[in-house]
Amino acid sequence: MKKNPEQEIDQSARFAFSFFVASAGLWLLAAALLAYIAAAKLTDPLFLSSLEFFTYGKIKVSQANAFVYGWGGNSIFAVSLWIIARLSQSLVRGSIFLIFAGAIWNLSITFGLLGILDGHMLGHELLEMPKQVWPALLVSYLIIAFIIFVVFRSRKQKVTIAPQWFIIAALIWFPCLFLFGWSGLELNPGRGTLQSILSIWFGQNVIWLWLTPVALGCAYYIIPSVLNRPIDKYYLAVFGFWCIAGLAPWSVVHHLEGGPVPMWVPAIGTVMSIAMVFPIAVASTNFHSTAFQDVSKVWNYLPLRFVIFGTLSYTISSYIGVIFSLPAVAKLTQFSIINEFHFNQRVYGFFSMIIFGIVYHILPQITGREIGTAAKNFHFWTSALGVFALLLAYLVGGLTHGVLGQQPSLAWATVIESVKPYFLITEYAFLILGFSQLVFVLNLWKVLVPNPFASSDRQANLKTA
What we know:
Distance between the termini: 28 Å
CATH architecture: Up-down Bundle
CATH topology: Cytochrome C Oxidase, Chain A
């Protein structure tokens, strides 16, 4: 039977997509294990204390890098390749180069994390892996991005739409961020407070200009595709795109409020953070006014339910982040665990939930096999419970930590003891998330890896019949 164009595109992308999404799943499990160990150490400092590789600082940094570059990077490659190929109506060529570059990417992350655990890490946010691995990471990234650009360049329709803007921009922004940050932090280190500014600028913008645009692009793709209706007020999407491109890179420096930097630096960050209400409002309007026109379909189609959960998390938590950027509030929360709320909201509540949804949407089209509804439903509810518990604990615990930390009459031990119950909740939350992610990965591999006994079993049943 002759295949239609979409089936041919899916077939051409299948090998590379399967490799990247399978690798992403393994890194997700590694990050989940490291996250639980780090959370357990906050409630029991003696946990694994006899192992020098498992100190809290090393584990915490390793978890962030495994999540962002391992899970985040591989899943970005997978969904970007498929969405760009589908929208461009172009076949994916050069799969062998994609696999080769992907293998270098994953091996580099592995050696980088081993270097961190061995104590050979740099002191910059999300640039902690030893400097020897970064050239390999950059080269492998450029190979993968180049092949995706080739697919995009060969598109049938020259007019582009929102998913393409966000995904292609994210693929361009990451190497630009890295080269700029690496130059100012390692090749030609800036003096004075410049390194502090560059460090947080890079670390925060990896989330805002790499993970976030890809997740938004996925949402812009799947919502109208599944609901079979155009994005409501779509004309606002281009405004939201340029707001993120222009405002997000500078809004992140509000985290330096109260730090050893010129006052105008966090002041600019605060202004830009307040202005971020515009792209947040645009995304919320586009996504939710479209999705809520057919709530039953959103609820019944599990991949879309994941995506809408992620977009709602993005909207609500981003508005909370704007409030926390205000100087009066930042003075209370700046040095509290509230920063853990921001990071985990973006990577668990927003990015990961949308990636789960888009992967569930793509898999049947790539493999011809569907993951069971019960398994996806279980994954959704455990993920939602874990994310809700995690974010609530960090939010309330962060506010408690910040308020009590401002009381000079309280001993620091008393402050930490007051926050300890929230650490215990985060430990259980990471345990729930880890179990949920294990179910996701098992189902993922079950679909991707063919069962060698399936055909023989089927033949035996036919003979018996």
